[in-house]
């Protein structure tokens, strides 16, 4: 089949014919491209004096092609001049004739995460893909975009304010900052009136309908009255002109319009000083291209970032008036030497390119004060920077620097701000001992430094060195004001001299064992954060500081606090998670100057200690509005309800017994948390007093839920809390019975600031997973495709919005249905799942963020994304993989991390949580907190409450899944049936009058048990041996083989091709009594349904490994048994007979004691038909079977009252001789006596194999 696009164009509603489908299947390099018509095509023809013309969108066309088909061939076949590409509903780019559209689609899908070529070919034919990648035959343009670029039309115009001037028909154009009025006939060659509008006025004329008056700034400025034909058109002009006249500086913003050139009429606005052309596709050699921008005589600022220029426009160097130039993200590899001509340039931004060096001519820019070189490929600070004598700020974040050369900074006499974030710095060097007195701000975050000595920077005021590997830090303290060194391995921090100007010190998450002495001597220190260290005490000099406002020393090993002597201005005191057992009684009392020692205290956090009481003197803290003291052993409610400004009180997880309530509660109290106090009982009067509180959290009485329809293996609880935000942007997915089987799906979705995407994923992701499981049996494949397809299905909502996603799928291994449950977890973003295995946390997810994933950070850097100072990709999100946010492709991808592992009996819990939960709780703390909470809902609520008590104010969501996938969760009917060993079934001794096993709980099921005696007709067969297989294949008719039995999910039916004897449902016949009961019983037994002459007993027999088998009496263990030749080999005896002409005889093993099954319900929801027939028995104890029969309808026994005429022993011809021998041997062995003593003499052997009969 030919590739010509014209030969294979289909209408949008057309389907592939069989011929076209066959053509596609022949080669995965074939496919189709959807070609869209322009949504709105606008053309303004001034020569013909035509107004705006809008054409409706044309039909969608489907073009069959291959990956080798160029755009020019498709254009020729479709009669188009060019093809246009639109990604994620954003900009539209003209394709080069040599570009290949189908290859671009395939590469795009591959970069998202699709790997299978056949699946890529299938996805490329999906019309939903158009929300991410779309091709146009004409360039689309929205009407509002056109209005912002240029407005034009022929209207009646009058110049001046007096009535002497007449109305005349003129061509009017609003473009840039000017209103252009010209003659209709001579619009291009005749006289044109240009009216600057910046600072002017645009007003509606009341005397004339739909008329606007335009005037420039100044007293003698002319005025033009323009009369429009309709109100809508008048409003369009008025809206756009109002934006222009409101400006103080002549600025034109044409960013994000897919422009290839600027409008020709824009050059009439000669007063433009700042032109923004960011995020377009500007070309060089065009009438309004970049080579013509020098025509703006007063241009001072030009933004050409994100235009993918590739080459530096040399003619830009002729715009001598430029003071600010932004050329970020254009793929430059080098700069021309002509850049030295921009002598007035003060700010040059070259971030996000591929530069490795700078020309020496750059040193001519003596006015340059700010130079941005971030996210390029520099390996050292360029020497050209030394020549820039006025350079104050140098940004080189995200490059490839490994050595910090302080000598170069010493030679840059005016440098003040140096940004070296996100490099690979490992050490520092200095050429000379001369100190640097110019650098005031240094940013070294996210590097690999182990030791840092910046004592030579004598004027350093602010240093950021977070997230390195620092052990020692040495600084000069002459001018130091702010030091942030969190998340390192610091053991010592030396600052000399004492930083007398230091106001903020952050040293959290290090290995400091004491507070440095110089910190205690800092006289202006206001904020001190030393949480997550190894502190054992807080120096009295710190607590006595007269400048300290905020002290955070949580998560240390502090055992006591010193006594305060004087009043201090402390406002925030954080002592959470230490080893405090008591607080000094005088901590909140009055000082010698009669002022309270903590008079200004506003927030106090004492959580996670071992406090029994809080001093009553806390009532002296009149400004206290927040008290957090959860997870202690406080038994007496502190005296805080008298405080006039108290707002938030958290005393959860303590030992409170009662609350002393004052006559009137403070009106400011908004949140009171008393959960987790098991001994606290609140009376109705107390609750009435608390009724005005906005949020009151108390323990609710747990209601016993009906778990009849719940899964035996797992149950879940979900808690979501909005925190202090107005909306909840977290959604969860929970399906305990997924796909109508014993499977489960759980998910968590966090949209950060949007609630739309989490809701969409909640509704669609389970359905997508169900579809993908049908297509692939490999867990990594179907889970990855689930995320990628869900990403596509977000449609237009996923273009600008994004969401973290976590999906957990509990299932059987599709390759081995007899295996145990498997847990497959996939995630993108910051939602995480943690498995509690034997009391220890086992993380199953990966955090895809710039801080936690170095390889993702490196990938984003290599793709030239801009990482802002708050560690966000392009200032939008900290995540590097999400569902949605397609406009941030290729930096943000939907490809998930996938983890798959089998579940074991040691697995207790599965915890799912969003970012806010895991930011506050460690894995171990979360597991230990809820491990012994039996109610999953209460456990989930406890986790959310705990996160909020730790200061979480954002949306928080937690889901707890209690797992029970051990043998206790088995639902096989008749659990405990004797299973064959390597040589067959071991004989089992059964006492007829033996005590019945204890009835198990509802979680383990209802027991089922029966015993029988040997019949006169028996067939012996070995299980698992070669002879047995041959015997079954040749001697038994296929209709006699039992159908596969129903098994629980812990013990699925094996898929082996070997002969398996698995009686699932059986029908027993008996003629011992006319009502189907034994002759000794007078009353019907519960569970036995009497129906005329038949007794139907509901039961389902399964073969599974016994658990908790009843111990045999010692007498039985000592009994010896003489076995025949067949019994010595572990043979299993079968009986079979024909009941009627319709139902063929079916095999059932000779009954031993069948252990009770833990099943009480049918997991699959399908009732099996009666398909097994068992012959007449002499002493079948049917009442024992009926008494212990499961109540669920999973099969039945049928016992006719009388022997049917057709009931007779049927023996295949080729087995007659063998059966006769078998019939003789038991009679000889038993001597014609009753079978009951022989049955009791059998030995009970332990079972070792969980193999189906």
TrEMBL record:
Cofactor(s) annotated in UniProt: Mn(2+)
Membrane topology listed for this record: Peripheral membrane protein
One cellular-component annotation, GO: cytoplasm
The EC number(s) this enzyme carries: 3.1.3.16
Known catalytic reactions: O-phospho-L-threonyl-[protein] + H2O = L-threonyl-[protein] + phosphate
Location of region: Disordered: 988-1083, 1215-1253
Domain of life: Eukaryota
GO molecular function: metal ion binding; protein serine/threonine phosphatase activity
Composition skew (Basic and acidic residues), residue ranges: 1240-1253
Entry annotated with the keyword Cytoplasm: yes
Gene: PHLPP2
Bias (Low complexity): 1001-1027
Major place of residence: cytoplasm
Top-tier EC class: hydrolase
Domain (PPM-type phosphatase) ranges: 715-963
UniProt entry keywords in alphabetical sequence: Cytoplasm, Hydrolase, Leucine-rich repeat, Manganese, Membrane, Metal-binding, Nucleus, Phosphoprotein, Protein phosphatase, Repeat
Protein name, as recorded: PH domain leucine-rich repeat-containing protein phosphatase 2
Keyword Phosphoprotein: yes
Organism of provenance: Sarcophilus harrisii (Tasmanian devil)
Biased segments, Polar residues type: 1057-1076, 1224-1236
Taxonomic lineage: Eukaryota, Metazoa, Chordata, Craniata, Vertebrata
Locations listed in the record: Cytoplasm; Membrane; Nucleus
């Amino acid at each position: 089949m030919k590739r010509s696009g014209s030969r294979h164009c289909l209408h949008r509603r057309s389907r592939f014919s069989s011929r076209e489908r066959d053509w596609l299947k022949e080669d995965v390099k074939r496919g189709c491209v959807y070609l869209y018509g322009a949504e709105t095509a606008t053309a303004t023809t001034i020569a013909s004096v035509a107004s705006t013309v809008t054409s409706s969108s044309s039909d969608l066309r489907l073009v069959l092609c291959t990956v080798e088909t160029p755009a020019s061939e498709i254009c020729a076949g479709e009669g188009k001049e060019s093809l246009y590409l639109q990604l994620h509903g954003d900009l539209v780019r003209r394709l080069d004739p040599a570009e290949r559209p189908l290859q671009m689609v395939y590469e795009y899908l591959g970069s998202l995460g699709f790997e299978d070529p056949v699946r890529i070919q299938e996805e490329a034919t999906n019309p939903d893909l158009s929300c991410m990648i779309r091709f146009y035959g004409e360039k689309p343009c929205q009407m509002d975009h056109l209005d912002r670029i240029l407005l034009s039309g022929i209207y009646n115009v009058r110049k001046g304010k007096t009535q002497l001037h007449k109305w005349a028909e003129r061509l009017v154009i609003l473009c840039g900052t000017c209103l252009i009025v010209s003659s209709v006939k001579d619009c291009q060659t005749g006289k044109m009136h240009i009216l600057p509008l910046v600072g002017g006025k645009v007003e509606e004329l009341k005397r004339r309908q739909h008329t606007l008056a335009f005037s420039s700034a100044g007293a003698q400025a002319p005025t033009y009255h323009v009369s429009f034909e309709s109100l809508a058109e008048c409003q369009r002009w008025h809206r756009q002109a109002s934006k222009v006249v409101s400006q103080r500086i002549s600025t034109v913003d044409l960013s994000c319009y897919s422009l290839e050139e600027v409008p020709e009429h824009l050059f009439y606005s000669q007063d433009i000083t700042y032109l923004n052309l960011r995020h377009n596709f500007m070309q060089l050699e065009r009438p309004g291209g970049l080579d013509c921008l020098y025509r703006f005589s007063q241009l001072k600022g030009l933004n050409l970032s994100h235009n993918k220029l590739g080459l530096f426009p040399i003619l830009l160097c002729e715009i001598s008036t430029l003071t600010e130039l932004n050329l970020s993200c254009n793929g430059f590899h080098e700069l021309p030497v002509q850049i030295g001509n921009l002598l007035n340039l003060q700010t040059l931004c070259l971030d996000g390119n591929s530069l490795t060096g700078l020309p020496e001519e750059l040193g001519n820019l003596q006015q340059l004060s700010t130079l941005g070189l971030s996210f390029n490929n520099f390996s050292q600070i360029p020497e050209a920077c030394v020549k820039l004598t006025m350079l104050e700020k140098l940004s080189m974040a995200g490059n490839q620097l490994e050595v910090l050369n302080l000598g170069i900074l010493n030679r840059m006499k005016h440098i003040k701000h140096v940004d070296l974030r996100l490099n690979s710095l490992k050490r520092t060097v200095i050429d000379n001992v001369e100190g640097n007195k110019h650098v005031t701000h240094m940013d070294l975050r996210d590097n690999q430094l182990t030791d840092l000595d910046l004592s030579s920077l004598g004027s350093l005021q602010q240093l950021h060195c977070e997230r390195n590997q620092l052990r020692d830090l040495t600084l000069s303290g002459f001018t130091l004001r702010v030091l942030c060194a969190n998340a390192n391995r610091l053991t010592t921090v030396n600052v000399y001299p004492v930083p007398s100007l230091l106001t903020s010190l952050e040293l959290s998450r290090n290995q400091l064992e004491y507070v440095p002495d110089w910190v205690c001597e800092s006289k202006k220190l206001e904020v001190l954060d030393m949480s997550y260290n190894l502190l054992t005490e807080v120096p009295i000099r710190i607590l006595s500081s007269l400048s300290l406002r905020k002290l955070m020393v949580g998560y240390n090993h502090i055992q006591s606090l010193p006594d305060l002597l004087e009043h201090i201005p402390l406002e925030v005191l954080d002592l959470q998670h230490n080893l405090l057992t008591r607080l000094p009684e005088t901590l909140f009392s009055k000082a010698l100057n009669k002022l309270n020692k903590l008079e200004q205290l506003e927030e106090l956090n004492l959580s996670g200690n071992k406090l029994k009481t809080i001093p009553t003197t806390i009532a002296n803290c009149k400004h206290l509005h927040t008290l957090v003291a959860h997870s202690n052993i406080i038994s007496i409610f502190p005296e805080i309800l008298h405080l006039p400004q108290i707002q938030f009180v958290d005393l959860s997880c303590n030992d409170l017994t009662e609350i002393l309530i004052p006559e009137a509660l403070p009106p400011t109290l908004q949140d009171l948390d008393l959960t987790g106090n098991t001994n606290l009982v609140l009376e109705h009067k107390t609750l009435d007093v608390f009724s005005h509180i906005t949020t009151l959290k108390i323990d609710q009485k747990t209601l016993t839920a009906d778990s009849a329809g719940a899964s035996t293996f797992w149950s879940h609880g979900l808690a979501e809390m909005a925190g202090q935000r107005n909306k909840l942007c977290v959604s969860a997915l929970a399906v305990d019975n997924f796909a109508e089987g014993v499977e489960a799906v759980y998910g968590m979705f966090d949209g950060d600031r949007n609630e739309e995407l989490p809701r969409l994923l909640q509704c669609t992701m389970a359905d997508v997973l169900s579809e993908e499981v049908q297509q692939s049996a490999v867990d990594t494949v179907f889970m990855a495709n689930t995320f990628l397809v869900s990403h596509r299905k977000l449609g237009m909502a996923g273009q600008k919005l994004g969401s973290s996603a976590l999906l957990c799928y509990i299932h059987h291994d599709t390759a081995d249905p007899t295996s145990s449950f498997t847990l497959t977890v996939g995630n993108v973003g910051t939602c995480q799942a943690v498995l509690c295995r034997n009391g220890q946390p086992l993380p199953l997810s990966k955090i895809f963020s710039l801080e936690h994933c170095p390889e993702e950070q490196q990938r984003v850097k290599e793709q030239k994304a801009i990482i802002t100072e708050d560690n966000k990709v392009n200032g939008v999100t900290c995540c590097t993989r999400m569902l949605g946010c397609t406009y941030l492709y290729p930096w943000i991808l939907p490809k998930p991390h996938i983890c798959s592992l089998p579940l074991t009996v040691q697995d207790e819990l599965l915890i799912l949580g969003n970012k806010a939960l895991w930011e506050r709780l460690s894995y171990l703390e979360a597991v230990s907190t809820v491990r012994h909470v039996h109610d999953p809902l209460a456990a989930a609520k406890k986790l959310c409450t705990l996160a909020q008590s730790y200061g979480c104010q954002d949306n928080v969501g937690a889901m707890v899944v209690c797992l029970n996938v051990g043998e206790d969760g088995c639902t096989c009917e008749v659990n405990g049936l004797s299973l064959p060993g390597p040589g067959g079934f071991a004989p089992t001794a059964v006492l007829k009058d033996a005590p019945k096993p204890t009835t198990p709980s509802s979680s383990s099921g209802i027991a089922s048990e029966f015993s029988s005696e040997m019949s006169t007709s028996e067939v012996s067969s070995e299980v698992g041996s070669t002879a047995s297989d041959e015997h079954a294949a040749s001697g038994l008719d296929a209709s006699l083989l039992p159908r596969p039995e129903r098994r629980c999910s812990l013990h699925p039916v094996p898929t082996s091709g070997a002969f398996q004897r698995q009686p699932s449902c059986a029908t027993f016949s008996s003629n011992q009594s006319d009502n189907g009961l034994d002759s000794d019983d007078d009353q019907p037994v519960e569970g036995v349904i009497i129906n005329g002459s038949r007794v139907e007993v509901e039961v389902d027999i399964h073969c599974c490994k016994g658990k908790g088998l009843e111990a045999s009496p010692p007498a039985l263990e000592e009994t010896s048994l003489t076995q025949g030749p067949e019994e010595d080999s572990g043979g299993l005896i079968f009986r079979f007979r024909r009941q009627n002409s319709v139902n063929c005889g079916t095999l059932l093993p000779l009954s031993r004691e069948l252990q009770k099954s833990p099943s009480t319900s049918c997991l699959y929801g399908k009732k099996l038909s009666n398909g097994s027939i068992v012959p007449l028995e002499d002493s079948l104890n049917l009442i024992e079977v009926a008494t212990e029969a499961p109540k669920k309808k999973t099969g039945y026994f049928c016992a006719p009252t009388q022997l049917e005429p057709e009931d007779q022993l049927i023996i295949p011809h080729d087995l007659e001789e063998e059966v006769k021998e078998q019939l003789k041997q038991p009679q000889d062995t038993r001597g014609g006596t009753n079978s009951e003593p022989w049955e009791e003499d059998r030995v009970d052997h332990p079972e070792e194999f969980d193999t189906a009969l």
